[in-house]
Structure formats: structure tokens, C-alpha cells
Task: inverse folding
């Protein structure tokens, strides 16, 4: 049985995250990114708390986790997975939402408006927390009500619980 893990990123994970982002951009038919975009991405990536999702120790995706000042809620941004890991993002969101509920926190997911998941969340009537010209932020706390039980036990080793 494969073991899904979520861990805090290290500087060594930057190239992995960049490659996963590029895979996703390419699959959406967007133009390739160059050195200037990589530099901008590095500045954004280094300024946040990022997590790596792995299966049996091999990285398959990543996301940024941004807490509010009181640590009462947090936003998951840039949730990207290697192509071919269909079904894993909802599982990861479920684990995160279960853990947040256990700690009395709310969870939001911020995605570029062009991301295919935005239309799925809207069609499933997830509450939209905010929308801008470029991003949509969804309240994913209701994922628990729609859950099939993934992550119901929570994961006490999630990086933000070690703070």
C-alpha cells in the first residue's frame, strides 16, 4: 500500500516545484516560461511556506500554505501535481480540511481563474470566498461534508502543526 505524505519544503525542492509548475502550464497550452518568470517564481516561492506531497517518499506535487495573522485559517495556493496523479488533489485537500477542522481552522484554496478545478468547484456549489481578475478563492471546509472519508483520521505530522 502506498503511503501519502505531506512535508515542509526545503531549498532543494525548488527545482522540483518549478518543473511541476511547468508541466501544468504546458498541459494547459500556455506558452513556455523563461528565466525572467523563473526568477519571479523563485521570489514568490521563497517568501512562503511551501509543502511537498509525496507517495512513498517520491514527490508528486506541492502547494503553498499561507496562514492569517491569528492562525485561525489558512489558504492553500498553487496546488500543483505531476501529470498523471488524477484523484490525488481532492485526497490531499480532504486531509488538510480534516486536520484544519480538528484544530478549529478554516481552509481556503486559491487558484488561477484559468485552472480547470475552478469550474468544478463552482459546479459543485462550493462557497466562493473571493474572486479577482486573476484568482478565485474557494472555501473548502465543506469538502468534509462531501467526503468519502479520505484522511478522516487526520495527519498529526502536517508541517504547520509543528509550529
Result:
Amino acid at each position: 500500500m502506498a503511503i501519502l505524505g505531506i512535508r515542509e519544503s526545503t531549498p532543494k525542492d525548488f527545482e522540483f516545484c518549478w518543473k511541476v509548475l511547468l508541466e501544468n502550464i504546458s498541459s494547459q497550452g500556455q506558452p513556455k516560461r523563461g528565466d525572467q518568470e523563473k526568477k519571479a517564481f523563485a521570489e514568490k516561492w521563497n517568501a512562503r511556506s511551501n509543502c511537498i506531497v509525496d507517495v512513498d517518499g517520491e514527490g508528486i506535487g506541492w502547494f503553498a500554505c499561507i496562514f492569517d495573522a491569528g492562525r485561525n485559517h489558512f489558504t492553500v495556493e498553487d496546488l500543483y501535481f505531476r501529470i498523471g496523479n488524477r484523484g490525488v488533489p481532492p485526497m490531499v485537500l480532504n486531509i488538510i480540511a480534516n486536520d484544519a477542522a480538528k484544530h478549529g481552522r478554516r481552509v481556503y484554496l486559491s487558484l488561477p481563474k484559468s485552472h480547470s478545478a475552478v469550474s468544478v468547484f463552482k459546479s459543485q456549489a462550493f462557497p466562493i470566498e473571493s474572486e479577482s481578475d486573476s484568482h478565485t478563492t474557494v472555501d473548502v471546509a465543506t469538502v468534509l461534508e462531501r467526503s468519502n472519508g479520505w484522511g478522516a483520521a487526520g495527519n498529526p505530522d502536517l508541517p504547520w502543526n509543528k509550529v
About this structure: The longest helix spans residues 88-102. The helical segments are 14-27, 35-46, 88-102, 116-123. The chain has four helices and seven strands. The radius of gyration is 15 Å.
